[in-house]
Every structure is written in structure tokens, then in C-alpha cells.
Amino acid sequence: MQIEPTHLPEVLGPNGAALPAAQLDAIARYLRRLERNPTPMLLEYDGVVLHATTLLLRWVVDSPDVGVVVDGWVAELAGPRENPWPHGALAATLGMAAYQIEHRSEHLDPAGDQVQLAGVESVLRWYEALMREGAEHRPAIDAAIADRDRGALPAWLAARRAGR
Fold this sequence. Notes:
8 helices; two-stranded antiparallel ribbon; single chain; 2 strands; mainly alpha
């Protein structure tokens, strides 16, 4: 099953409902597509025009199938308060949800390193996609990408989580 944005409300089902495996797999594929092309898609839902990401975020919050814990590293990647990168928490949340769906048989801890690392990786993929469209450079994210490219992203995350 491939989700088209206009069918997203039907695929996500009623708020708070557990979904069958085929729907969850389709949602995970859609979330991974967003990492490659995070340009917001507008759609109508209950007579209101929303970004698809707004609907997905609402689903993540209400879903019994995934649980997301946004850790302190997100603030670092979002950048300074006076000029934050608005996609960081969203990308992290949706990436962690996709990872949990893809690994649902493992019963992962949403606050655990595996899920958090999946969130970091999702942020980096969103950023790289937006950079291809001319987005502004973010030094903290550029540094995390350099760590990822050196194979040091788990150490990057561990250093930020050590003081929790």
C-alpha cells in the first residue's frame, strides 16, 4: 500500500486506534518519503486545510502503536532561540515513529538510544533534503552530519544524553 497525501486521513484511521500491520507499514514508508522530500503537502481534513505533517504529528501523539520521547539533543539541532530551525522536533518525532513501526517486533523503549538515534538520523535527512532546496546552513546540524559521515553519530548522541 502506497499512501497519497490526500488519502492520509483514511490511512491514519480514527484518533487513538491501533492499526493493522499493512497500514503501519504504509505510514512508515510515507514518513521515510518525507525525509527525502519534506516540503509540506496541504490537505483537507474535517473541513480544515492542514499540512500533512500536522496530521501525522497528531497521529503520533494519539497512536497506541508508537511512543515518542523528544530528548534534549533536539534543542541543540534546532539552533539558537532567536533563529531556530523549525523542522527539528517534527523530523525527530516522525523519524522515531517510523523507526518504531519498522522495528515493532523489538518492543523498543521510545527513550532508548536506538530510537533516539533514529530521530537524529531523520533530522539530518530532512535537513539535507531542505539544503538541496536552498535552505540556510545550520552549524550544529552540519557538525552532526560530519560526525555521522565519520561513523561517530552514536558517540555524538551519547555525549548529549550523558548529562540527562
